[in-house]
Design goal:
With 432 residues, this protein is mainly alpha-helical. The protein has one domain: Hydantoin permease (Orthogonal Bundle), CATH 1.10.4160. The chain has 20 helices and no strands. Helix 5 packs parallel to helix 12 and helix 8 packs antiparallel against helix 16. The longest helix has 37 residues.
Length: 432
Amino acid sequence: MDLAERLRGASRRTKDDALAVLEGRSRRRGPTRLLPFLGPAFIAAIAYIDPGNFATNLLGGSAYGYALLWVVAAASLTAAVMQYLAAKLGLASGRNLAELCREYYRPTTVLTMWVALEIVAAATDVAEFVGASVAWHLLLPVSLPVGAGLTALAVVVVLALERHGFRPLEAVMASVIGLVALAYLAEVPLGGPRWGEVAQGLFLPTLPHGALYLAAGIVGATVMPHVIFLHSALTQDRLPVRDARTRRRILRFEALDIGVAMAIATLTNLAMLIMAAATFHRDGFVDVVGLAQAFRTLVPLLGVGAALLYALALLASGVASSTVGTVAGQIIMQGFLGRRVPLWLRRGLTMIPAFLVIASGVSPTAALVFTQVIISFGLPLALLPLARFTSDRSLMGPLRNRRVTIAAAYGLAWAIAGLNAVLILQTVGVKA
């Protein structure tokens, strides 16, 4: 049994605890009843606070102040909806999104989708390795290539946790989310944000001139197609499902899992942009701040402690999200091709583009934002099939999407596709 298959099933203890809650035999009371069901959403949510989010939120705040806060909020809401649909798909159908794509689409379509998603996976891995490498460089310091090597080693160590069961890996991911969230939520008051402008940026949508590229990057960094495939796999065999009533009850607990994890991730992303706006855009736009420059600038502005928190959060998010990306990539490849893929081969193939980008000497921050835009272009490949399959009564049974959910799922998917189309038109010089 490979890693992807092991991660799809909960431990016997977790299954027993969950069944006890579902059957009314549990001694757990209050919020503790949720504990056996927590985990899958936290693994997926790591992707929403990865180095790509650091870069897009940092640039968004330093360049445009608080103006793009609404983009972060809208992208986070979209991600929460899609994660809920992905969890429901795995629970109701017993299959993950990649497997269903192979089953329902033509072979040429499946091959095209797989190739495109591998490009997206490579872009994701580049972002995670670049971010973690920058963090190693800031903390030790070492060169970026050495930092990439340390990142690869750290990912292997984290992946080794799966040998001890599913819950240790979930616990590590939840801890990383907590670390990054606490680091940023603690730093926001230090920057002295203008809360009136924060409210305006959050609730009055505007798109400053030239901000579309960065907005697409924020969407790509936040929604992340590979974790939609991953989440559908994490719920497909996690708990024994006996009837429709049990599925509905499990889905309610999964919704709470998603709600908690996504609330933390959303607040963290908002805090990232608010901190960047308050710290680097206080007196108007002067310079676009990069990851390393932000670290050095934070020392005189907010102190050494704030700078170290920033670097540690960047490192933790890079290593954890790269680990999750490896698992998601394995699930996608196996689902589309119908063949098992050795984890070491998957890890090695996806590291190559990351090492090449790092060795090329390009700006790490620019590379991070560019990869998030590429990811944004890959989102319809996950969102449109997800909307279709979760609206299919033969697959979903009683858990089939309602009309409002169908409209929301397709509307969000086509809205992102439209955003990408406008960006392409602007890039080639066509006014849209």
